[in-house]
Amino acid sequence: MSAASVEQPFEDEPVTLTAIADEIMERHPGYRVEVIGGNLLVTPAPDVPHARALTKLMRPFIAAGLDDGETEVLQGIGLWLPTDTEDYAIPDLAVVDADVDDHLIENNAYDPVCFRLVLEVTSGNWKNDLKTKVAAYSEAKVPVYVVVDRKHQRLHVLTEPAGDEYANHRVHAPGEVITLPDSIGAAVTLDVGQIIKAGQPKAN
Q1: What pTM, to 2 d.p., does this model score?
Q2: Which has the least CB within 10 A, 2, 57, 99, 153?
């Protein structure tokens, strides 16, 4: 009696990081998988405070008119990275040029040239947002990178990409009200305390 063959994933085709990333997302719905520096970064589905912080953050961008006309405010779209052949990131929030649809490269990732700002709200793997992605977004020449650091309750604004780091990195604490660079297309003011509070679990 002969044994039936068992099909293995990726049989008869080269295994790529992109294929592995797609397989992980298929098996674990809600997980975010990115490839940065030739490494897979896997982030579990966000919790409610993470989503709540993003909602609070979108409001001032939309109120400033950045979701109409020359730009759009979008969540969770792929950004193609120049750091390696398969590299891409999926920022939590982005301000992009309105013609972003014309800049699709592959694997649902878009040319960084149309990104004016990317924003991350940290999860358990917060070091990725504060280290790995700083280098990746700077090398992609994204003009403004904002990080809501929920662990340390700070908001980081990075500008002036230069190689694998940003020349300008400012850290803001609750109690501050800041205005993001006009280069994103409009003056956007953020209340740091309000955003940090939104990213924390509500007290019972």
Answers
A1: 0.87
A2: 2
